[in-house]
Design goal:
CATH topology of the largest domain: Phosphatase 2c, domain 1
Strand content: 15-25%
CATH class of the largest domain: Alpha Beta
Strand order of the largest sheet: 1-2-13-10-7-8
CATH superfamily of the largest domain: PPM-type phosphatase domain
Number of strands: 13
Shape: elongated
Bound molecules: zinc ion
Distance between the termini: 41 Å
Order of helices and strands: HHHHEEEEHHEEEEEEHEEHHE
Number of helices: 9
Helix content: 40-55%
């Protein structure tokens, strides 16, 4: 979770106050604008008195991601009015269906590759990013994970989706694509946010370029399965990060496993599933189809964590050279 940055919120509110004051002097005095200005003033006052971010009914902390989305929020989720509760439920439903609509087609054979992915949000929306883009001669396979949870994370995920679709259409080299995405992400998000991302660019002959922005490393499924050691800084942490590309060649029947840390960090009695266990588990599965392998992994992880509440989004992507 991220901490509330009160300086950032104060700056945001002060900016809104100025804009509202200008709007009020320029236009006819609208009661809506005056009402908003009062709310902004009251939020600034709460910042001064140290009660900002506390629910006015129960005095517990308001959910941070909701405050980030609306800095004027005065009540925790439990103490919203019936109308506000209903609006919130509708928003959740809408966000969830928007996210689902952004997912790529599944179980396709594309450009010499057979693939399958599983995308399992922990709640109604996910902070994981899962994408497959085909430019004709090349296919991009992407799995990413935005820091934080809930709505703030899901909004950043949709932002990443739009950013990668635009950048890939320009046809930049992979390392340049990631550095650009990093700079754009740096400039456009709150300082407390970052994302990890693994991007694979594959051609029909089985050649792949791998670029990793702080994400869990991919696993090559071939003979003895092994981790491909590709590293780099997460997106949005340092604006000037550069990225390194590693090249591999996949033979027919070899696969690559991409996943989010919700898989390896699944817990049982406080102990993580772990990368070693994942490696051991996929080792005898290399000959199976992507769909079979990804389902097997998910079942194994579910079995491992049993009834323990899942708190992190889980994504698995299997791509196989055919
Ligand atoms: Zn409350």
């Amino acid at each position: 979770m991220f901490e509330l940055n009160t300086d950032e919120i104060r700056a945001k509110l002060t900016d809104r106050k100025t804009r509202l004051e200008i709007a009020i002097t320029k236009t006819e005095k609208s009661s809506q604008l005056v009402g908003l200005l009062k709310e902004v003033d009251s939020a600034l006052e709460r910042l001064d008195t140290g009660t900002y971010g506390l629910c006015e009914v129960c005095h517990d902390s308001i959910e941070k991601e909701r405050l980030l989305a609306d800095p004027l929020m005065r009540f925790c989720i439990d103490h919203l009015s019936t109308v506000q509760q209903k609006n919130l439920e509708e928003d959740i439903e809408l966000s969830s269906s928007i996210q689902k609509a952004l997912l790529p087609k599944n179980n396709l054979v594309l450009n010499g590759w057979d693939f399958n992915y599983i995308y399992e949000p922990a709640g109604p929306v996910s902070g994981d990013y899962c994408d497959i883009l085909n430019t004709g001669s090349e296919t991009y396979f992407i799995v990413g994970d935005v820091s934080g949870k809930g709505f703030a994370a899901s909004m950043l995920m949709t932002h990443m989706h739009a950013m990668f679709h635009s950048l890939i259409s320009v046809g930049l080299p992979l390392e340049e694509l990631l550095s650009r995405a990093n700079r754009l992400f740096c400039e456009s998000t709150l300082t407390s946010h970052y994302a990890t991302l693994l991007c694979i660019k594959a051609d029909e002959k089985g050649r792949i370029e791998v670029c990793n922005a702080g994400h869990v490393q991919p696993i090559l499924l071939s003979g003895n399965c092994k981790i491909l050691d590709v590293r780099g800084f997460p997106l949005g942490l340092f604006c000037q990060s550069t990225y390194e590309i590693k090249n591999y060649n996949l033979e027919t029947g070899e696969s690559l496993l991409l996943y989010s840390d919700g898989i390896t960090e699944a817990l049982r009695n406080g102990k993580e599933f772990g990368v070693e266990r994942l490696l051991d588990f996929v080792n005898p599965l290399t000959d199976f189809s992507p769909k079979h392998i990804s389902n097997k992994i998910l079942n194994e992880v579910r079995e491992y964590s049993g009834s323990e509440n899942r708190t992190d989004d889980q994504t698995i992507m299997l791509i196989r050279k055919i």
